[in-house]
Amino acid sequence: MGLNEEQKEFQKVAFDFAAQEMAPHMAEWDQKELFPVDAMRKAAQLGFGGVYVRTDVGGSGLSRLDTSVIFEALATGCTSTTAYISIHNMCVWMIDTFGNEEQRYKYCPPLCTMEKFASYCLTEPGSGSDAASLLTSAKQQGDHYILNGSKAFISGGGESDVYVVMCRTGGPGPKGISCIVVEKGTPGLSFGKKEKKVGWNSQPTRAVIFEDCAVPMANRIGDEGQGFIIAMKGLNGGRINVASCSLGAAHASVILTRDYLNVRKQFGEPLASNQYLQFKLADMATRLVASRLMIRSAAVALQEEREDAVALCSMAKLFATDECFAICNQALQMHGGYGYLKDYAVQQYVRDSRVHQILEGSNEVMRMLISRSLLQE
Protein backbone atom coordinates (compact mmCIF):
# COMPACT_ATOMS: atom_id res chain seq x y z
CA MET A 1 0.00 0.00 0.00
CA GLY A 2 1.17 3.52 -0.78
CA LEU A 3 4.23 2.49 -2.82
CA ASN A 4 5.08 3.77 -6.27
CA GLU A 5 5.77 1.39 -9.16
CA GLU A 6 9.53 1.43 -8.69
CA GLN A 7 9.17 0.62 -4.99
CA LYS A 8 6.75 -2.20 -5.76
CA GLU A 9 9.29 -3.61 -8.21
CA PHE A 10 12.25 -3.78 -5.82
CA GLN A 11 9.91 -4.98 -3.07
CA LYS A 12 9.00 -7.89 -5.37
CA VAL A 13 12.68 -8.54 -6.07
CA ALA A 14 13.38 -8.66 -2.32
CA PHE A 15 10.38 -10.91 -1.59
CA ASP A 16 11.41 -13.29 -4.40
CA PHE A 17 14.99 -13.40 -3.15
CA ALA A 18 13.77 -14.07 0.41
CA ALA A 19 11.51 -16.91 -0.77
CA GLN A 20 14.05 -18.55 -3.07
CA GLU A 21 17.46 -17.90 -1.49
CA MET A 22 16.78 -17.43 2.23
CA ALA A 23 13.62 -19.14 3.51
CA PRO A 24 14.64 -22.66 2.33
CA HIS A 25 17.88 -22.37 4.34
CA MET A 26 16.69 -20.33 7.33
CA ALA A 27 16.32 -23.29 9.71
CA GLU A 28 19.68 -24.80 8.74
CA TRP A 29 21.51 -21.49 9.17
CA ASP A 30 19.90 -21.18 12.60
CA GLN A 31 20.49 -24.71 13.85
CA LYS A 32 24.05 -25.04 12.49
CA GLU A 33 24.88 -21.40 13.26
CA LEU A 34 26.06 -20.77 9.69
CA PHE A 35 27.05 -17.29 8.47
CA PRO A 36 25.57 -17.36 4.93
CA VAL A 37 28.28 -15.45 3.08
CA ASP A 38 27.31 -16.70 -0.39
CA ALA A 39 23.63 -15.83 0.05
CA MET A 40 24.47 -12.34 1.26
CA ARG A 41 26.78 -11.76 -1.69
CA LYS A 42 23.93 -12.79 -3.99
CA ALA A 43 21.77 -10.21 -2.19
CA ALA A 44 24.49 -7.63 -2.79
CA GLN A 45 24.33 -8.35 -6.52
CA LEU A 46 20.75 -7.02 -6.34
CA GLY A 47 21.99 -3.82 -4.68
CA PHE A 48 21.23 -4.80 -1.08
CA GLY A 49 24.80 -4.40 0.22
CA GLY A 50 24.65 -0.60 0.18
CA VAL A 51 20.99 0.24 -0.19
CA TYR A 52 21.17 3.88 0.95
CA VAL A 53 24.81 4.47 -0.01
CA ARG A 54 25.65 6.86 -2.86
CA THR A 55 25.95 5.36 -6.32
CA ASP A 56 29.43 6.66 -7.14
CA VAL A 57 30.95 4.16 -4.68
CA GLY A 58 28.72 1.25 -5.66
CA GLY A 59 25.65 1.91 -3.56
CA SER A 60 22.05 1.82 -4.73
CA GLY A 61 21.32 5.41 -3.70
CA LEU A 62 17.83 4.59 -2.42
CA SER A 63 15.83 6.38 0.26
CA ARG A 64 15.20 5.37 3.87
CA LEU A 65 11.64 4.43 2.93
CA ASP A 66 12.90 2.24 0.09
CA THR A 67 15.33 0.62 2.52
CA SER A 68 12.57 -0.20 5.00
CA VAL A 69 10.49 -1.82 2.26
CA ILE A 70 13.47 -3.97 1.19
CA PHE A 71 14.47 -5.07 4.70
CA GLU A 72 10.89 -6.00 5.61
CA ALA A 73 10.67 -8.18 2.51
CA LEU A 74 14.08 -9.83 3.05
CA ALA A 75 13.32 -10.51 6.72
CA THR A 76 10.38 -12.73 5.76
CA GLY A 77 13.02 -15.14 4.42
CA CYS A 78 15.45 -14.93 7.35
CA THR A 79 15.14 -12.24 9.99
CA SER A 80 18.55 -12.91 11.54
CA THR A 81 20.47 -12.68 8.26
CA THR A 82 18.57 -9.56 7.19
CA ALA A 83 19.33 -7.92 10.52
CA TYR A 84 23.05 -8.46 9.89
CA ILE A 85 22.70 -7.05 6.36
CA SER A 86 21.01 -3.99 7.90
CA ILE A 87 23.92 -3.46 10.34
CA HIS A 88 26.39 -3.84 7.48
CA ASN A 89 24.43 -1.22 5.51
CA MET A 90 24.55 1.17 8.47
CA CYS A 91 28.34 0.86 8.64
CA VAL A 92 28.78 1.51 4.92
CA TRP A 93 26.46 4.54 5.16
CA MET A 94 28.54 5.98 8.01
CA ILE A 95 31.74 5.74 5.95
CA ASP A 96 29.98 7.08 2.85
CA THR A 97 28.44 10.02 4.72
CA PHE A 98 31.23 11.07 7.10
CA GLY A 99 34.36 9.73 5.41
CA ASN A 100 36.57 11.71 3.06
CA GLU A 101 36.75 10.84 -0.64
CA GLU A 102 39.77 8.59 -0.21
CA GLN A 103 38.02 6.62 2.55
CA ARG A 104 34.78 6.40 0.60
CA TYR A 105 36.47 4.97 -2.50
CA LYS A 106 38.68 2.62 -0.46
CA TYR A 107 36.06 1.04 1.77
CA CYS A 108 32.61 1.43 0.21
CA PRO A 109 32.93 -0.44 -3.12
CA PRO A 110 33.99 -3.82 -1.62
CA LEU A 111 31.44 -3.39 1.18
CA CYS A 112 28.61 -2.67 -1.26
CA THR A 113 29.37 -5.91 -3.14
CA MET A 114 29.78 -7.67 0.22
CA GLU A 115 33.16 -8.91 -0.95
CA LYS A 116 33.96 -7.53 2.50
CA PHE A 117 31.68 -7.38 5.55
CA ALA A 118 31.39 -4.68 8.21
CA SER A 119 30.61 -4.57 11.93
CA TYR A 120 29.53 -1.69 14.17
CA CYS A 121 31.47 -1.44 17.43
CA LEU A 122 29.87 0.80 20.06
CA THR A 123 28.68 -1.35 22.99
CA GLU A 124 31.18 -2.31 25.70
CA PRO A 125 30.96 -4.66 28.69
CA GLY A 126 30.40 -1.64 30.97
CA SER A 127 28.54 0.71 28.62
CA GLY A 128 25.41 -0.43 26.85
CA SER A 129 22.59 2.10 27.06
CA ASP A 130 25.05 4.66 28.46
CA ALA A 131 27.13 4.64 25.29
CA ALA A 132 28.78 8.02 26.01
CA SER A 133 30.65 6.45 28.95
CA LEU A 134 32.61 4.05 26.71
CA LEU A 135 36.21 3.38 27.78
CA THR A 136 37.99 1.96 24.71
CA SER A 137 40.86 4.41 24.23
CA ALA A 138 42.69 5.60 21.12
CA LYS A 139 45.86 7.50 21.98
CA GLN A 140 47.83 9.29 19.29
CA GLN A 141 51.38 8.06 18.74
CA GLY A 142 53.00 9.59 15.69
CA ASP A 143 50.72 9.07 12.71
CA HIS A 144 48.81 6.23 14.40
CA TYR A 145 46.20 5.73 17.10
CA ILE A 146 46.94 3.02 19.68
CA LEU A 147 43.66 1.36 20.66
CA ASN A 148 43.08 -0.46 23.95
CA GLY A 149 39.81 -1.82 25.27
CA SER A 150 37.02 -4.15 24.21
CA LYS A 151 33.60 -4.11 22.57
CA ALA A 152 30.76 -6.50 23.45
CA PHE A 153 27.94 -8.20 21.53
CA ILE A 154 29.39 -7.33 18.11
CA SER A 155 27.40 -8.80 15.22
CA GLY A 156 29.77 -10.29 12.67
CA GLY A 157 32.63 -10.20 15.18
CA GLY A 158 35.51 -12.37 13.96
CA GLU A 159 33.98 -12.78 10.50
CA SER A 160 33.73 -9.17 9.35
CA ASP A 161 36.61 -7.49 7.55
CA VAL A 162 35.93 -3.87 8.58
CA TYR A 163 35.14 -2.67 12.12
CA VAL A 164 33.66 0.81 12.59
CA VAL A 165 34.84 1.53 16.13
CA MET A 166 33.76 4.26 18.53
CA CYS A 167 36.64 5.02 20.88
CA ARG A 168 37.87 7.72 23.24
CA THR A 169 40.44 10.10 21.79
CA GLY A 170 39.67 12.92 24.23
CA GLY A 171 38.18 13.54 27.64
CA PRO A 172 35.08 11.99 29.25
CA GLY A 173 31.61 12.29 27.78
CA PRO A 174 30.32 12.26 24.20
CA LYS A 175 32.67 15.00 22.91
CA GLY A 176 35.71 12.83 23.60
CA ILE A 177 34.64 10.06 21.24
CA SER A 178 35.95 9.52 17.70
CA CYS A 179 35.13 7.02 14.95
CA ILE A 180 37.96 4.85 13.60
CA VAL A 181 37.94 2.05 11.01
CA VAL A 182 39.95 -1.00 12.06
CA GLU A 183 40.62 -3.68 9.48
CA LYS A 184 40.71 -7.40 10.24
CA GLY A 185 44.28 -8.65 10.53
CA THR A 186 45.56 -5.50 12.22
CA PRO A 187 48.08 -6.53 14.94
CA GLY A 188 46.51 -6.18 18.38
CA LEU A 189 42.97 -6.90 17.14
CA SER A 190 41.46 -10.14 18.46
CA PHE A 191 38.08 -11.66 19.20
CA GLY A 192 36.33 -13.40 22.09
CA LYS A 193 34.46 -16.68 21.99
CA LYS A 194 31.42 -17.03 19.78
CA GLU A 195 28.38 -16.32 21.94
CA LYS A 196 25.55 -18.88 22.23
CA LYS A 197 22.34 -16.95 21.62
CA VAL A 198 18.59 -17.54 21.76
CA GLY A 199 18.21 -16.24 18.21
CA TRP A 200 20.18 -14.37 15.55
CA ASN A 201 22.17 -17.58 15.05
CA SER A 202 22.99 -17.01 11.37
CA GLN A 203 25.32 -14.19 12.42
CA PRO A 204 28.22 -14.69 14.84
CA THR A 205 28.43 -12.49 17.93
CA ARG A 206 31.77 -11.98 19.65
CA ALA A 207 33.67 -9.50 21.77
CA VAL A 208 36.12 -7.40 19.76
CA ILE A 209 39.35 -6.79 21.69
CA PHE A 210 42.06 -4.17 21.16
CA GLU A 211 45.46 -4.61 22.78
CA ASP A 212 47.94 -1.93 21.73
CA CYS A 213 46.27 -2.06 18.32
CA ALA A 214 47.99 0.48 16.04
CA VAL A 215 45.69 2.03 13.43
CA PRO A 216 46.69 4.80 10.99
CA MET A 217 45.22 8.21 11.78
CA ALA A 218 44.05 8.20 8.16
CA ASN A 219 41.44 5.61 9.27
CA ARG A 220 39.58 8.14 11.43
CA ILE A 221 36.14 8.90 10.00
CA GLY A 222 35.21 12.56 10.43
CA ASP A 223 36.88 14.89 12.92
CA GLU A 224 38.21 14.03 16.35
CA GLY A 225 35.35 14.26 18.82
CA GLN A 226 32.70 13.70 16.14
CA GLY A 227 32.32 9.97 16.80
CA PHE A 228 29.33 10.10 19.12
CA ILE A 229 27.39 12.23 16.65
CA ILE A 230 28.26 9.77 13.88
CA ALA A 231 27.22 6.83 16.07
CA MET A 232 23.86 8.38 16.97
CA LYS A 233 23.07 9.41 13.39
CA GLY A 234 23.86 5.87 12.30
CA LEU A 235 21.57 4.47 14.99
CA ASN A 236 18.61 6.63 13.91
CA GLY A 237 18.65 4.73 10.64
CA GLY A 238 19.58 1.50 12.41
CA ARG A 239 16.41 1.74 14.48
CA ILE A 240 14.29 2.04 11.35
CA ASN A 241 16.19 -0.90 9.85
CA VAL A 242 15.83 -3.29 12.79
CA ALA A 243 12.16 -2.32 13.20
CA SER A 244 11.70 -3.18 9.51
CA CYS A 245 13.25 -6.59 10.20
CA SER A 246 10.65 -7.04 12.95
CA LEU A 247 7.97 -6.19 10.38
CA GLY A 248 9.25 -8.98 8.16
CA ALA A 249 9.15 -11.51 11.00
CA ALA A 250 5.60 -10.47 11.93
CA HIS A 251 4.52 -10.39 8.28
CA ALA A 252 5.73 -13.97 7.77
CA SER A 253 4.16 -15.09 11.06
CA VAL A 254 0.74 -13.73 10.08
CA ILE A 255 0.90 -15.59 6.75
CA LEU A 256 2.01 -18.83 8.45
CA THR A 257 -0.82 -18.51 10.97
CA ARG A 258 -3.44 -17.83 8.31
CA ASP A 259 -2.33 -20.94 6.40
CA TYR A 260 -2.19 -23.07 9.54
CA LEU A 261 -5.70 -22.07 10.62
CA ASN A 262 -7.02 -23.12 7.21
CA VAL A 263 -5.52 -26.63 7.31
CA ARG A 264 -5.63 -27.54 11.02
CA LYS A 265 -8.91 -29.14 12.13
CA GLN A 266 -10.25 -29.45 15.66
CA PHE A 267 -13.76 -30.38 16.80
CA GLY A 268 -14.57 -31.43 13.25
CA GLU A 269 -13.86 -28.13 11.49
CA PRO A 270 -10.90 -25.94 10.47
CA LEU A 271 -9.55 -23.59 13.12
CA ALA A 272 -10.20 -20.79 10.63
CA SER A 273 -13.92 -21.14 11.31
CA ASN A 274 -13.42 -20.27 15.00
CA GLN A 275 -14.46 -16.65 15.48
CA TYR A 276 -12.10 -16.09 18.42
CA LEU A 277 -9.12 -17.08 16.26
CA GLN A 278 -10.44 -15.01 13.36
CA PHE A 279 -10.51 -11.96 15.63
CA LYS A 280 -7.01 -12.73 16.92
CA LEU A 281 -5.72 -12.90 13.35
CA ALA A 282 -7.48 -9.61 12.56
CA ASP A 283 -5.78 -7.97 15.55
CA MET A 284 -2.40 -9.30 14.42
CA ALA A 285 -2.86 -7.95 10.89
CA THR A 286 -4.02 -4.57 12.21
CA ARG A 287 -1.03 -4.22 14.53
CA LEU A 288 1.28 -5.22 11.68
CA VAL A 289 -0.08 -2.53 9.38
CA ALA A 290 -0.02 0.10 12.16
CA SER A 291 3.63 -0.75 12.83
CA ARG A 292 4.47 -0.59 9.13
CA LEU A 293 2.86 2.85 8.72
CA MET A 294 4.68 4.18 11.77
CA ILE A 295 8.05 2.93 10.51
CA ARG A 296 7.52 4.32 7.02
CA SER A 297 6.47 7.69 8.42
CA ALA A 298 9.65 7.81 10.52
CA ALA A 299 11.75 6.76 7.52
CA VAL A 300 10.41 9.69 5.50
CA ALA A 301 11.10 12.09 8.40
CA LEU A 302 14.69 10.82 8.64
CA GLN A 303 15.18 11.15 4.88
CA GLU A 304 13.92 14.73 5.01
CA GLU A 305 16.12 15.49 8.06
CA ARG A 306 13.14 16.87 9.94
CA GLU A 307 13.43 18.07 13.52
CA ASP A 308 11.07 15.36 14.74
CA ALA A 309 13.04 12.55 13.04
CA VAL A 310 14.86 11.32 16.17
CA ALA A 311 11.64 11.14 18.19
CA LEU A 312 9.73 9.45 15.35
CA CYS A 313 12.52 6.89 14.80
CA SER A 314 12.49 6.13 18.53
CA MET A 315 8.70 5.82 18.57
CA ALA A 316 8.70 3.56 15.52
CA LYS A 317 11.41 1.32 16.94
CA LEU A 318 9.67 1.11 20.34
CA PHE A 319 6.20 0.48 18.98
CA ALA A 320 7.02 -1.80 16.08
CA THR A 321 9.51 -4.09 17.80
CA ASP A 322 7.14 -4.55 20.77
CA GLU A 323 4.09 -5.10 18.59
CA CYS A 324 5.81 -7.33 16.05
CA PHE A 325 7.27 -9.56 18.74
CA ALA A 326 3.78 -9.84 20.25
CA ILE A 327 2.44 -10.81 16.80
CA CYS A 328 5.09 -13.52 16.38
CA ASN A 329 4.45 -14.80 19.89
CA GLN A 330 0.68 -14.91 19.29
CA ALA A 331 1.32 -16.75 16.03
CA LEU A 332 3.27 -19.39 17.92
CA GLN A 333 0.42 -19.70 20.44
CA MET A 334 -2.10 -20.20 17.63
CA HIS A 335 0.03 -23.02 16.22
CA GLY A 336 -0.42 -24.86 19.53
CA GLY A 337 2.20 -27.50 20.35
CA TYR A 338 3.43 -27.49 16.76
CA GLY A 339 4.52 -23.87 17.13
CA TYR A 340 7.05 -24.96 19.74
CA LEU A 341 8.74 -27.40 17.37
CA LYS A 342 11.74 -26.36 15.33
CA ASP A 343 10.15 -28.04 12.32
CA TYR A 344 7.79 -25.03 12.24
CA ALA A 345 9.31 -21.68 11.25
CA VAL A 346 7.14 -19.57 13.55
CA GLN A 347 9.31 -20.31 16.60
CA GLN A 348 12.38 -18.96 14.78
CA TYR A 349 10.64 -15.67 14.02
CA VAL A 350 9.84 -15.41 17.74
CA ARG A 351 13.46 -16.06 18.74
CA ASP A 352 14.99 -13.84 16.07
CA SER A 353 12.71 -10.85 16.69
CA ARG A 354 12.98 -10.85 20.50
CA VAL A 355 16.39 -9.16 20.58
CA HIS A 356 15.11 -6.24 18.50
CA GLN A 357 13.51 -4.88 21.68
CA ILE A 358 16.99 -4.71 23.25
CA LEU A 359 19.53 -3.63 20.64
CA GLU A 360 20.01 -0.39 18.68
CA GLY A 361 19.02 1.28 21.95
CA SER A 362 16.75 -0.73 24.23
CA ASN A 363 13.06 0.11 24.19
CA GLU A 364 13.47 1.63 27.65
CA VAL A 365 16.02 4.03 26.14
CA MET A 366 13.57 4.76 23.32
CA ARG A 367 11.03 5.86 25.93
CA MET A 368 13.67 8.10 27.50
CA LEU A 369 14.48 9.74 24.13
CA ILE A 370 10.79 10.25 23.35
CA SER A 371 9.98 11.77 26.75
CA ARG A 372 13.05 14.04 26.55
CA SER A 373 11.87 15.29 23.15
CA LEU A 374 8.38 15.97 24.50
CA LEU A 375 9.60 17.75 27.63
CA GLN A 376 11.91 20.02 25.64
CA GLU A 377 9.08 21.33 23.43
Question: What attributes characterize this protein structure?
Answer:
377 residues, alpha+beta, 4-stranded mixed beta sheet, 4-stranded antiparallel beta sheet, 11 helices, 10 strands
Rg over CA atoms, rounded to whole Å, is 21 Å
Beta content: 5-15%
Distance between the termini: 33 Å
SS elements, strand count: 10
Structural class: alpha+beta
| Mean residue pLDDT | 97
**Biggest β-sheet, characterized?**
4 strands, mixed
Regions with little confidence, pLDDT below 50 for 5+ residues: none
Spatial shape: globular
- Strand arrangement within the widest β-sheet reads 1-4-5-8
Q: What is the ordering of alpha helices and beta strands?
A: HHHHHHEEEEEEEEHEEHHHH
User: What helical percentage do the residues reach?
Assistant: 40-55%
Pfam families: Acyl-CoA_dh_1 (PF00441), Acyl-CoA_dh_M (PF02770), Acyl-CoA_dh_N (PF02771)
Protein name: Acyl-CoA dehydrogenase family member 8
Keywords: Acetylation, FAD, Flavoprotein, Oxidoreductase, Transit peptide
Cofactor: FAD
